[in-house]
Amino acid sequence: MASDAIVESGRPAVGTRIDIQALRGIAVLFVVLYHSGLVPGLAAGYLGVDIFFVVSGFLITGLIYRALNEGTFSLYAFYLRRAKRLLPAA
Question: For residue 29, what are the domain limits?
């Protein structure tokens, strides 16, 4: 995804949302702390997974919205890209 790209200068690529990256970082922290057991009674690991789902839905909806506005959306192509991204390489 373009939002994950870092240009050679070390700066985030154009279009990278720092707020979304921060949410992803917080979600990772919650999941890691939960699984590490360093914080007894911490149930935030589940919250981290929920954050990942919400962020993913937000980003995918934005992609679909832009493609619909540009008149370039194809449901077949959308699901093909999803399958290529989610299924392991054969």
Answer: 2-86
